[in-house]
Amino acid sequence: MNFEFYNPTRLIFGAGSLNRLGEIVKEKGSRALLVIGGGSVKRNGTFQRAVTSLEQTGVTVVECSGIEPNPRITSVARGAQIAREENCDVIVALGGGSTMDASKVIAAAALYHGDPWDLIGHGQEDWVIPTKALPVVTIPTLAATGSEMNAAAVISNEETKIKSFVQSDALYPTAAVVDPELTLTVPQDQTAYGVCDIIVHVTEAYFNGIDGTPIQDHFAEGIILNTIEYGKRAVADGNDLEARAQLQWASILALNGFMAAGMNPAGFPVHMIEHAISAHHDITHGAGLAIVNPAWMKFAANHRPTKFVQFAERIFGLQAKSNDDMDCALAGIAAYEEFLKSIGCPTRLKEVGIGDELLAQYAEDSALVLRDGEGKLLSRPAMSKDDIVTVLKTAL
Ligand code: NZQ
Ligand code: ZN
Asked: 251 CB less than 6 Å from ligand 1?
């Protein structure tokens, strides 16, 4: 193993921690752009609690509301303009991954005078990766993306139908205030999609990583097992605070860099394919992953059966006849798919109203950024456009 690990985000975790928001933001600025989504935080009272905590410490609040799920670059541009006009010196992201991602890019775009889309990698020659951004404090209200403690953001361009990402050390939130109580109101379907997203963040590293990572493997399997156990509980009873807290912690651990340290995954193929699909159809990220991941796993298992046998044995307690027993590998994937169905996730494109018309287009768009010298999508194994279409056909 050969790796570097870095994550500077201060984490404040626990029920009730929202009350400390003002104290934490005050250390970074005195005029906050408070970024929110479509209004759930207003309906459930979280917004007012955040404003009160900020104002009690003397932080002035400027509101930027209306960030959509699958956040648009136009919303980022609007937020950056407000931040500049209002002289905000800190960005506070209160919401799900969409709000947090938009906030990170707003923080960078506020200090960049070109087109904010330049900051998102979409195959352009001169990708402007941000080197500076206003400080961002995240307060996740949904356990899913891990955006609260990582340096990535995913933004959609409605005009070009491209959904893509940026990742830069400048985008690490300075602090994450993670209060599981804020997730008690997440509806059942979004809870399930979040569970799926957390697990796929782990499997992307686990299946696409290098061989010989025993500590990370056990860590990854622990996160998956925990997410299955507490995910079922949170889906069954949204008021189960213990389950909500476990999911919030899993969401962070799955994608703050620590779990994957040393695994050096070849790519994040299931995400790249899902992003290409949701750019065209605006489906929920976690639901799209529930469709693509089992199909991708069936493809990848042929190339690396031992890792899929390990998954089947350690996650679902199956018994393999040998360490490359394909029947066992496939049974593990089937058990995973059954779990997804049991919590209410779709596992076929037709369930979300998508047919086969644009499969070649998704394949093309998937490999816009994370591709090898031959234009193949980075993955283990690397995927040609035909491979991607084949995988998607099994997901129809
Ligand atoms: O917009 P509001 O009204 O707040 O409602 C949201 C939205 O409709 C609702 N919601 C959130 N918290 C709630 C709540 N409803 C009731 N009570 C609460 N406490 O849930 C809906 C979905 O919200 P969204 O933020 O879109 O969900 P999620 O957290 O799953 O974020 C998805 C976005 O993150 C990107 C995805 O591609 C997608 O654009 N990702 C970001 C990553 C990152 N930064 O590292 C990695 C991920 O793999 C992912 O790609
Ligand atoms: Zn994801």
From this structure: no
Q: Which atom from ligand 1 is nearest to the alpha carbon of 155? A: 39
Please give the number of the atom of ligand 1 that sits closest to the Cα of 200: 48
**Strand pairing partners for 164?**
155
Place of tokens 């283990």: 380
Q: Give pLDDT tens digits for 334-389.
A: 999 999 999 999 999 999 999 999 999 999 999 999 999 999 999 999 999 999 99
- Secondary structure percentages of the chain, helix, strand, coil, to 5: 50, 10, 35
User: How many Å lie between the centroid of ligand 2 and the Cα of residue 196?
Assistant: 8
Which CATH class name applies to 188-395? Answer: mainly alpha
For the chain, the structural domain boundaries read: 10-183, 188-395
- Cα–Cα distance measured from residue 30 to residue 60, given in angstroms and rounded to the nearest whole number: 6
* 69 Cα nearest atom in ligand 1: 26
CATH code for the structural domain at 10-183: 3.40.50.1970
Taking the CA of 256 as reference, the closest ligand is 1
Query: What distance in Å separates the CA atoms of residue 95 and residue 74, rounded to the nearest whole number?
Result: 18
Q: Determine whether the shortest distance from the Cβ of 37 to ligand 1 is under 6 A.
A: yes
